[in-house]
Structure formats: structure tokens, C-alpha cells
Design goal:
heterodimer, A: alpha/beta, Rossmann fold, 2 domains, seven-stranded parallel β-sheet, 15 helices, 13 strands, globular, B: alpha+beta, Peroxisomal Thiolase, Chain A, domain 1, two-stranded antiparallel sheet, 12 strands, 16% strand
């Protein structure tokens, strides 16, 4: 489902024109489909510094049926075979000099990367590095990965995962996610893991088998895509939207064998009503996706209280209230619960005419960070996802110029799809994602905004 | 003596319901067929209770105004819905009592253990109503169809006269009296001396109560929007006695005419469905039991020769039901008396209060007495929502079951629905 420009840029005449004029050359991204192998080609795993994660990485990849090559011997591969991914274990960097190893490994490896390839750098978190030199080397990974993401073409992405000492067990699910087609539109991101008791997914094809998931704002757009993907991954989805959207909501629920709940999440009794329904009908909930959101754009000087208040009520206060109601009610949140809150690029970068929206979405980021320790105590997690330019009915109504610019100013040179946001949320919802907590993951193709 | 093979009976549970917002005739649903509306209503119910691909024991529904092509309306709607195609279905029709009668039929099969779950519903459209050709033209066309030679065909066609061409519109009139239902109700209203103002008061209260119920989210899990309509478009939240007083009477004649378009139900399109089950089925599915259908009764009156009002049959059915269940008219927490016309509700209550009527017509020693008006149609009724004939029963059963559930265990509600042909269907629900 490429957009018109992507289709044109990949046609015969379009290829010539875009190359000669130096125009963006977006490609159709490799996206996940059930049954798909984790990667379309072998992985080369290298290290800079001492590297304590190589064995973990190799084990996870071999387990997933991926051929793992060593940069020294290129064993297991054939000459000239394109790589599906390049993984650099940069843990144990002691100072800037160690970074030379990163360059030595990455430069030739990236040349062999196929389209929609993946670059993943694993490093120690820069905070509490022990010495300024160590901190410098660790922080350098940030600039390195963001720049690689900008240099890559053909739908390839680069991301970094910071793995603290003791959080090695947390690495498997993020590693699989970042290499797979599920992370197609996640680019230039830095994720920090935490130590946790990490359960295995019951089945990598159905990681949410047996789970009950609530999705708010599920009647259309990104919410409907989230409901579909969670259902595909095995969850029973309780689809929530305002009563007025009930016709669409029923259609979504019926298409995925879920349950439709018409509820205004800003109503005073919304939390208790939802809790009652979840406990009585489903014996509690495993996954909660706070997706419902509205925009009421105006420049701040022209914005009336109603616009401000309605956006805050839906986008932020309802997420707080419903989460609190679930925490307070005995048996509502099942053990190992996963909460995923939808934030926005506007919450990170700000946006003209969106003071209310951006404030509410930034608030979501603060909320998940603050709540993470309490959730960790329950072996649960709470994270946020911040979509960038996602192609929906809403963006279709934007003026042509605004829409085209909005969709091109990122490293993948195209807008994302609702399913890209949904895949990220589904990954954060997995049992094996226990070591990702309090994080905000951008799904923006490394947008220039707020980067 | 041989042991009885009669199975023990149980009370059927009402799990929940769904309806589409009701729309005045020739408005939002002008292009929708009965099958469209019933299918959408079933799908909304399926979505609410997660019944996709499930086979329920039976789906029973009907329509009052029906095209010939809709001979198997309910089964066809089931096949078009997300229910399993292995769900059996059949049609019923008892005029405005159709919806409630369907619920009684499903409940009885559940009570007997013949099915574990079932859906009762009803649908009607007066917009997409069947048109018939005139009786004379119909006879010509049938003989044309039977003609074997060209000559015979020409002979048949030659019998067509211009006057035969005009179609016969379905009319809301009693075949045996030729009177519209409203005209019948006007006769009863005059007999019982039902005043204009009390009718307008009842109508205004119905609108305001239903609007308030919508506002507090009461209908969130009872209604699923359809074709862009999110609330009943007959509903007038700002209705008042003063505004209603300005309307001219449309039924009855002369000085004493009191019935207007404001205190009579309009022609309406819509559909409703109720999910019933055994307690065990509901429990196994994690579904709620809002109330149980305790008992039901039908009655009919001779409105043609017997001097009784067309819509007065429920007045006769209720005392039978009360006696069988050892209850008085005052033993209820909620009363749902279908507002075909405001005057019908008022005449019904007046008859129950009248010692002479109760003694002579109902054969009772004492009158049934009066009803606490604050317990009557508390979330509005047909004057506000509109009245798609066969869909009204399902609307009332689901709403009353929810009201009883909200009020707590052991609460009791009475449903009374009048129907064309001088019939009435009444039932008791209990939480």
C-alpha cells in the first residue's frame, strides 16, 4: 500500500527522474506478516569494546532461525550475500578509542545491507558510567546511531538499545522487534531496558494468546489497527469508543471476534464502569492501550477554554483516571499487565496551533515515566508510543502541500501506516517485553521534528 | 403411575439487548429494508456480547409490515449477520406485540430446557413498506401468468383498465372497522374522558425522561448507531406541555378531539433484539444476568362487536397475570406501559382504578387500583423513541431489564403492550 509518490519513485521513469533530480526515493517497507521469517537474510554480529551480549544475541537469533555470521570469518554465509541486519555489541566501551572498533565493523557491514535492512547497536546506558571517558563513549553511540539512520536508504533503519548490567534477560524481545518487520517505521530510536523477571512469550506467532486487551478509540484509524494487530497476535480485544461511534466500533469488534463497549472515557464513572465490565466479563485485563485522542487546534491566543479542556480530558486525564481505577480495583489488572499509552510527536517537538494537544501528549510521556516503578513492582509495565506522520483518514483531509511535506521529512521519506503504530504497541504488550518500562518509543521514521 | 416426563422449568435470563436508534418514517432509514435493520441490530448485539461465529439456540423475530420476499426475514438476517450460519430462526407476527411475544417464545423454550440461549427481536419500516397492486390488477396479472397462448395473453392484457394502475398503500387501519388505530384510540379516550392536558403532560415527560437517560449514558449499552443516526430522531429533549398544546388534533372529531401528533406515536422505522439465556449459559460465557422473565399473558378484546376499545386488551391480561403470580398491581418497582398514544396509557390506568369496570368487565371484587406515576415509563417510552411496531417489545424488555438490574436484586417490573386486532401482551420481569 505505497503512497502515490513511492509508487512513482519506484516506477521505471520515476526511478530515472527522482535519481537525476536528487528527489527522495522512498521504498515500500518490509512489514510483518504472520509466518514471515524474522529476517530476509543473515545477520552479522560484531563488537566494539569488550562486548558482553554477543552470546545472548547469537542465541536469540539462532533460536529464531536466523543465520548468524561473524565479521571475521563470514561463516555461514555465501560470498556477496546481502545482509538482513547488522548488530553491533558496543557494551563495555571504556573510552572514545574503543569506538574505532564500531567504525571498523560497521563500515564494511553496512555496504552489504539489503533494502529494509536493520542496524541495531547495543550499548551500556550513558548514565552512571563511572568515569567521564566511559560516559562519553556510551553517549557517542547516540550520535552514531542517529546518523547511521539518516545515512541509510532503501527502507533500512538503525536503532540503539541500552542494556544495563543485569538487564541482559530483557534483551530478547526488543532484539526480535527491532530486527523484524514489526519495527518498519521505528528509526533512529534509543531504548533503555531495565532488569525484570522476563517470562517467555507463549508462542512467537501468537505472543498474546489467552490475553485480554482493551483498546480505547478503537472504532477507526490507528485504534482499529491496534485492535486488529492485538487480535492477530492472539488477544481477545475489548474495543472501546464513544457511543456515537458505535456502528463502526461494532464492525471492528465483529471483524476480529472482539467485544464492543460504547463508553465516553471522560465520563465521571468511566473508570469504574470499564473495570466492572472487565472483571465481570473477562476476569480482568492483561493489556490496556490508551489510544483515544482528539485534536482541537487553534493558536493559543485564540483558543477557548472548551478546546483546551476537552483535549486535556480525553488525551491525558482519562488515561490517568482509568489507569488509576484499574490499579485500585482488586483483580482488575492481571499479573504482568501491560499498559501502553499513545503520545505523539507533537508532545515531543511541539506544534504550532497545538498547544493543548502537545501539552496533553507530553504529559503522557511524564505519566508513564513516573508510573514505571510502581508497575515494575507488580511485574507489570507502562510505556508510551509517540507516532509521527501516520497516514489516516485525518491526514487525507490535510492540504496537499502540508501532507506531502509532513510525510517526507523523515529518514524513510514516507508517512507511516496505522499498522506500524499498532505493531509497536503489540510488541510492548508481549509478556517477553517485561524489561521495557517507562519508555516512550517513537514511531516516526526518524522524523526531523523533535529529533 | 408412570413418572412424569415433564422437565422442570427454569426462568429465562435477560442478558442484554441492542437496538438501532429509531427513525421517523421517511427520514434516516428511508433506504433501509427490514432485513438491513434487523441484520445491523443482530450484529450490534453480537459485537456487544462477543458472539461472533456462535450458534445461539434460536433467533425469533418478526415485522408487522412485510414484503413477500421477506417470508424468511429472521433466518435471512441471521445468515447476513456475524452469528454462526447454523443458528436456527423463525418469524412471528402479533402486530405491536410481536417483539414481546418473540421474547416470551424464546424464554419459554429456555424455561423448558429446549434451548440454552436465544435472541428475540423485531423490526419495522414504514418507509420501505410493501406496495401492492390493486386487487383487480392482481387478478389480471395472475391470469396473464397462467396464459398459454398469445391469444390468451392478449385477452388477459385487454382487461387492464387505467383505474387499476394505482397501487394500494399499506394503511395503519383496522381491516374490520376501516378506522385508523388513532381513531379507535380517540373513541376510547372520549369514553374514559381523557383530557388533552394530561396527554400532553405524559408526552412531554416521556421525551424529557428519555433525553435524560441518553445524557447519563443509560442507552450506551442498549443502542448501536445506524446509518449515522446516534439517537432516536423523534426525541425532543425540550418538549413541553406548552409547545404540545399548540398542536391541532389529528384523531377524533369536534370539540372533544384531544389526540395530536405530539401525544400519539409517529410512524417509525427501527429494529431491536434481546439476548436471553439460561443462567448457566450466561455464567459460562461470563455474561451478566440483568433480570429474569417471570411470566407472561396475552388477551384479546372484541372491539368490533363487543364494545371494548381496540387497545384495551392489556387491561384484561394484567389481572390474569397478577392472580397467577399472587401479586397486586402495586407490587412493582417499574411499569412499562407502551405509549401507542398517551391516551391509551391513561385509559389503561383509569380502567384499573375504576371499581365498576373492574367488577363488570374484569370480574374483580375490588379495582386493581392506581400506579405510582414516578415508577411509570421512567426512561421514556414510545412517544419519545417512536414506535417501529415489532421493535417496541425488544426496546422495552432490554431497557426494563437494565433498570431492574441497576435497582438491585429482587426488583420487579411490569410490561404492558397493546396491539392491533384488539390484542394485548403483558409480562413480568424480575431482577
Amino acid at each position: 500500500m505505497a503512497d502515490w509518490y513511492t509508487t512513482f519513485a519506484n516506477s521505471g521513469v520515476g526511478t530515472t527522474i527522482t535519481k537525476q533530480l536528487g528527489l527522495p526515493r522512498p521504498v515500500e517497507l518490509r512489514r510483518y506478516e504472520p509466518g514471515q521469517p524474522l529476517l530476509p537474510g543473515p545477520v552479522v554480529v560484531g563488537s566494539a569494546g569488550q562486548g558482553r551480549l554477543r552470546d545472548t544475541v547469537t542465541a536469540v537469533l539462532r533460536d529464531a532461525g536466523v543465520t548468524v555470521q561473524s565479521p571475521v570469518t563470514a561463516d555461514g554465509g555465501t560470498d556477496g550475500e546481502k545482509l538482513g541486519a547488522v548488530v553491533l555489541d558496543a557494551t563495555g566501551l571504556t573510552g572514545p578509542a574503543d569506538l574505532a572498533g564500531a567504525h571498523d565493523f560497521l563500515a564494511p557491514a553496512l555496504e552489504r545491507l539489503r533494502s529494509s535492512g536493520r542496524v541495531l547497536v547495543l550499548a551500556d546506558p550513558p548514565a552512571a558510567a563511572g568515569s567521564p571517558a566511559r560516559a562519553a563513549a556510551r553517549q557517542a553511540v547516540d550520535g552514531l546511531v542517529r546518523s547511521i539512520a539518516k545515512e541509510l536508504r532503501g527502507g533500512s533503519t538503525a536503532n540503539a538499545v541500552f542494556v544495563p548490567e543485569g538487564a541482559e534477560e530483557s534483551l530478547a524481545a526488543p532484539l526480535r522487534f527491532f530486527l523484524s518487520g514489526r519495527s518498519a517505521y521505528v528509526d533512529g530510536q534509543l531504548l533503555t531496558l531495565s532488569a525484570a523477571d522476563v517470562p517467555a512469550n507463549p508462542d512467537e506467532e501468537k505472543p498474546l494468546a489467552g490475553k485480554v486487551a482493551v483498546v480505547t478509540g478503537a472504532a477507526r484509524g490507528i485504534g482499529a489497527a491496534i485492535a486488529e494487530v492485538l487480535s492477530r497476535d492472539g488477544a481477545h480485544v475489548v474495543a472501546v469508543d464513544v457511543p456515537a461511534a458505535g456502528e463502526q466500533l461494532a464492525r471492528v469488534a465483529n471483524a476480529i471476534g472482539g467485544t464492543a463497549v460504547a463508553l465516553d472515557i471522560t465520563a465521571e464513572d468511566a473508570g469504574p464502569r470499564l473495570v466492572q465490565q472487565l472483571v465481570a466479563r473477562h476476569g480482568g485485563v492483561d493489556v490496556v492501550v490508551h489510544n483515544a485522542g482528539i485534536t482541537r487546534d487553534k493558536l493559543l491566543v485564540n483558543m477557548d477554554a472548551a478546546r483546551w479542556n476537552s483535549v486535556m480530558a480525553v488525551n491525558l486525564q482519562a488515561q490517568l483516571d482509568i489507569t488509576q481505577a484499574l490499579l485500585d480495583a482488586e483483580g482488575a489488572l492481571k499479573p504482568g499487565a501491560r499498559i501502553v499509552c499513545v503520545s505523539s510527536q507533537s508532545g515531543i517537538a511541539g506544534n504550532r496551533g497545538q498547544t493543548n494537544y502537545a501539552a496533553s501528549k507530553a504529559g503522557v510521556i511524564g505519566m508513564v515515566r513516573a508510573w514505571a516503578p510502581e508497575f515494575a513492582e507488580r511485574d507489570a509495565t507502562i510505556n508510551a508510543v509517540a507516532p509521527g506522520f501516520i497516514v489516516t483518514e485525518m491526514t487525507a483531509k490535510m492540504p496537499f502541500g502540508t501532507r506531502e511535506i509532513g510525510s517526507r521529512i523523515n529518514s524513510l521519506q514516507q508517512g507511516g501506516l496505522p499498522v506500524d503504530v499498532a505493531e509497536t504497541i503489540a510488541w510492548l504488550s508481549q509478556p517477553a517485553s517485561a524489561g521495557v518500562n517507562g519508555q516512550t518509543v517513537r514511531v516516526c521514521g526518524q522524523s526531523l521534528l523533535g529529533a | 403411575m408412570a413418572q412424569s416426563q415433564q422437565p422442570a422449568t427454569r426462568k429465562a435470563a435477560i442478558v442484554g439487548g441492542n437496538r438501532i436508534p429509531f427513525a421517523r418514517s421517511n427520514s434516516a432509514y428511508a433506504q433501509a429494508s427490514n432485513q438491513d435493520m434487523l441484520t445491523a441490530t443482530l450484529d450490534g448485539l453480537v459485537a456487544r456480547f462477543g458472539l461472533q461465529g456462535e450458534s445461539v439456540g434460536e433467533v425469533v423475530a418478526g415485522a408487522v409490515l412485510k414484503h413477500a420476499r421477506d417470508f424468511n426475514l429472521t433466518r435471512e438476517s441471521v445468515l447476513g449477520s456475524k452469528l454462526a450460519a447454523t443458528t436456527p430462526a423463525y418469524d412471528v407476527q402479533q402486530a405491536c406485540g410481536t417483539g414481546l411475544e418473540a421474547a416470551i417464545l424464546v424464554a419459554n423454550k429456555i424455561a423448558l430446557g429446549q434451548i440454552e440461549s436465544g435472541i428475540a427481536g423485531g423490526v419495522d419500516t414504514t418507509s420501505d413498506a410493501p406496495l401492492a397492486v390493486s386487487e383487480d390488477l392482481r387478478r389480471v396479472l395472475i391470469s396473464l401468468n397462467g396464459a398459454k397462448t398469445v391469444q390468451e395473453r392478449l385477452k388477459a392484457l385487454a382487461r387492464i383498465r387505467p383505474g387499476m394502475i394505482a397501487p394500494e398503500m399499506p394503511r395503519n387501519a383496522e381491516p374490520r372497522t376501516g378506522l385508523a388505530m388513532g381513531d379507535h384510540a380517540a373513541i376510547t379516550a372520549a369514553e374514559w374522558e381523557i383530557g388533552r392536558e394530561e396527554q400532553d403532560e405524559l408526552a412531554a415527560r416521556s421525551h424529557r425522561s428519555m433525553a435524560a437517560a441518553y445524557d447519563r449514558g443509560f442507552f450506551d449499552d442498549l443502542v448501536t448507531p445506524f446509518l449515522g443516526l446516534t439517537r432516536d430522531n423523534n426525541l425532543r429533549p425540550d418538549s413541553s406541555v406548552e409547545k404540545l398544546a399548540t398542536l391541532k388534533p389529528v384523531f377524533g372529531t369536534g370539540e372533544g378531539a384531544t389526540m395530536t401528533a405530539g401525544n400519539s406515536t409517529p410512524l417509525t422505522d427501527g429494529a431491536s433484539a434481546v439476548l436471553l439465556a439460561s443462567d448457566e449459559w450466561a455464567e459460562a460465557k461470563g455474561l451478566p444476568v440483568l433480570a429474569h422473565l417471570v411470566d407472561a399473558q396475552t388477551a384479546a378484546v372484541d372491539y368490533v362487536h363487543g364494545g371494548e376499545g381496540l387497545l384495551m386488551a392489556p387491561v384484561y391480561a394484567v389481572p390474569v397475570l397478577l392472580a397467577r403470580n399472587g401479586l397486586t398491581l402495586q407490587d412493582f418497582d417499574f411499569y412499562e406501559i407502551h405509549e401507542a398514544f398517551a391516551s391509551t396509557v391513561l385509559a389503561t390506568m383509569k380502567a384499573w382504578e375504576d371499581p365498576a369496570f373492574c367488577k363488570e368487565k374484569l370480574g374483580l371484587d375490588a379495582p386493581l387500583g392506581s400506579i405510582d406515576r414516578s415508577k411509570l415509563n421512567v426512561h421514556g417510552s414510545s412517544l419519545a423513541a417512536g414506535h417501529p411496531f415489532a421493535a417496541t417489545g425488544g426496546r422495552i424488555v432490554a431497557s426494563l431489564a437494565k433498570m431492574l438490574h441497576e435497582a438491585g436484586p429482587g426488583k420487579r417490573g411490569l410490561i404492558s403492550i397493546c396491539a392491533a386486532g384488539g390484542q394485548g401482551v403483558v409480562a413480568i420481569l424480575e431482577s
